[in-house]
Amino acid sequence: MVYAKKIMVWATTEGDGLTWLVALAASVLLLLWICRKLPLKPRSSSEFPRCPPGFPILGNCMLLNGSAHELLSDLAWNQGYGDLFGLWLGSIPTVVVTSADLAKEVLHMNDKILANRGSYLFLKDLYYGYNQGIIFSSYNPRWVWRRKIFSLELLTLKRMQELQAIRYAELRKLLKRLQDSMDMGPRPVDVGQQVYGMTANTTLLLLQSRPLEKAIIEPPELVHILDDETLPAIGDFVPWLSFLDFFNSRRRWRAHRRIDALMESILGERRRLMAHCSPDELPHDFLQVLLSKEGALDEEHLTTTEIKAVVLDMFAGAVHTSATMVEWAMAELLRHPECMRRLQEEVDSVMALRCNGVDSVDLVVNDDHVQEMPYLRNILKEVLRLHPILPLLLPRVASTGFRLGKYWLPPGTNVLVNAWAIARDPRYWTRPTEFWPDRFLEVEIDLHGQDYEYLPFGSGRRVCPGMRLGMSVVQVTLANLLRQFDWELPQGQNANSVDMSCKGGLGNRKAAPLLAIPRKRNL
Ligand code: HEM
Question: Per the UniProt record, which residue ranges are transmembrane (predicted)?
Answer without folding.
Answer: 17-35
